[in-house]
């Protein structure tokens, strides 16, 4: 058995399909978002503008967040020192869970080390607890939800993306007596579209299913207090479990669910992904706490982000660039080819100092490779004009106008 050869072939497949991943080496400049330094090339760090950060509202650099983390570090030190059950349950964790439960109008919340882990741990645990459960999963659900569903060992029925008629057909053909769980996202992060939450909840009521929503790309950014699309659409009380991340709009790291006390108690007590791991550093939790509190009270960042997204979409559209339909802050430009997407991204970085990562399979289906821009409150009109001009020049250089 030649192990080296097998691994080499696996890597070669990625190269030949144009989807070998290159991680860009950057340092962000605190207080100057979205400016950063890039360490590619040989001429020392070069200034760049970041267009693909999921620190959507620049909260990772917010003075309140940074100060809270510094204070926590100096007060209690770096790590939590244990699992939640054995020494790692700090007062910061308890306070943040209270804030998150309140954010979503739920009885309780539970922290995890990432959004990925929260989806995997919660879905696999809850579905296992429901005898004979059938899970109804939107076709574009995130890999972490798919992992949780697979790990539950339950039967899964996939409904066409955002197609409630198809969801109903699948619910209707299922034994009325078995437990049912409907899992979906609010904002789909690669296309920027939004789930019809009320229509899905109507079906959940009709077929007696419980509902699970991933609000990873919405918390902090939608709703009056940043409770997500479920807050904006006044649907939070119709959803059993709301899941979110602390690493995107809240700017730090971690994940969570919010639900009624009974559900939280079950996940807390049965989920290996919660039980058998060191809890989040109190430093991180303190930062998130400051971020969540700030975004509950301030809409300035949310409004700035929406304005920036609308401007960039309009500039791309006016310039004849193939901007995809998105009703959210996400601005995807369709390329449809992994090699070209990488090439555009490379030219943007090397020649224009603009950093946007190409998005390839398996994150998006093959043939829909794209560039995904996430303008935020700190991206200026001048930056957007420069970026649009650069893209037009590249599109012309690569003779992609027809494709556009
Ligand atoms: C829809 C969705 N859910 C969950 C996650 C995982 O969140 P985290 O990055 O906090 O692990 C992501 C991550 O990128 C995501 O896009």
UniProtKB/TrEMBL annotation:
NCBIfam families: 5aminolev_synth. InterPro entries: 4pyrrol_synth_NH2levulA_synth, Aminotrans_II_pyridoxalP_BS, Aminotransferase_I/II_large, AON_synthase_class-II, PyrdxlP-dep_Trfase, PyrdxlP-dep_Trfase_major, PyrdxlP-dep_Trfase_small. Homodimer. Its cofactor is pyridoxal 5'-phosphate. It comes from the Bacteria. Belongs to the class-II pyridoxal-phosphate-dependent aminotransferase family. Its EC number is 2.3.1.37. The keyword Transferase applies. It catalyses: succinyl-CoA + glycine + H(+) = 5-aminolevulinate + CO2 + CoA. Residues 48-391 form the Aminotransferase class I/classII large domain. This is 5-aminolevulinate synthase. PANTHER family: 2-AMINO-3-KETOBUTYRATE COENZYME A LIGASE, MITOCHONDRIAL, CLASS II AMINOTRANSFERASE/8-AMINO-7-OXONONANOATE SYNTHASE. Pfam families: Aminotran_1_2. GO terms for biological process: protoporphyrinogen IX biosynthetic process.
């Amino acid at each position: 058995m030649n192990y080296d050869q097998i691994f080499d072939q696996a890597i070669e497949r990625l190269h030949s399909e144009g989807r070998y991943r290159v991680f860009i080496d950057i340092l962000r400049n605190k207080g100057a978002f979205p400016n950063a330094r890039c360490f590619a090339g040989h001429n020392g760090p070069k200034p760049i503008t970041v267009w693909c950060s999921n620190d959507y509202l620049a909260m990772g650099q917010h003075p309140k967040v940074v100060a809270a983390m510094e204070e926590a570090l100096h007060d209690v030190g770096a790590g939590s020192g244990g699992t939640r059950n054995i020494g790692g349950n700090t007062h910061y964790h308890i306070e943040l869970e209270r804030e998150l439960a309140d954010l979503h109008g739920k009885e309780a919340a539970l922290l995890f080390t990432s959004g990925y882990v929260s989806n995997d741990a919660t879905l696999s645990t809850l579905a296992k607890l429901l005898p004979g459960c059938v899970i109804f999963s939107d076709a574009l659900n995130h890999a972490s939800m798919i992992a949780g569903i697979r790990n539950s060992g339950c039967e899964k029925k996939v409904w066409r993306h955002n197609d409630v008629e198809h969801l109903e057909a699948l619910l209707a053909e299922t034994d009325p007596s078995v437990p049912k769980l409907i899992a979906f996202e609010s904002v789909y992060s690669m296309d920027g579209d939004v789930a019809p939450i009320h229509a899905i909840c109507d079906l959940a009521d009709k077929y007696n299913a419980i509902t699970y929503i991933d609000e990873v790309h919405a918390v902090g950014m939608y709703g009056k207090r940043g409770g997500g699309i479920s807050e904006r659409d006044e649907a939070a009380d119709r959803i059993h479990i709301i899941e979110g991340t602390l690493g995107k709009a809240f700017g730090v790291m971690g994940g969570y669910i919010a639900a009624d006390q009974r559900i939280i108690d079950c996940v807390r007590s049965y989920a290996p992904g919660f039980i058998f791991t060191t809890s989040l550093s109190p430093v991180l939790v303190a930062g998130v706490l400051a971020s969540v509190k700030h975004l509950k009270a301030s809409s300035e960042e949310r409004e700035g982000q929406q304005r920036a997204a609308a401007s960039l979409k309009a500039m791309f559209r006016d310039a004849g660039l193939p901007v995809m339909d998105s009703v959210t802050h996400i601005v995807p430009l369709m390329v449809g080819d992994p090699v070209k997407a990488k090439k555009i991204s490379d030219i943007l970085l090397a020649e224009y100092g603009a950093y946007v990562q190409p998005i390839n399979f398996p994150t998006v289906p093959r043939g829909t490779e794209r560039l995904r821009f996430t303008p935020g409150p700190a991206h200026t009109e001048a930056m957007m004009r420069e970026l649009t001009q650069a893209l037009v020049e590249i599109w012309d250089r690569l003779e992609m106008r027809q494709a556009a």
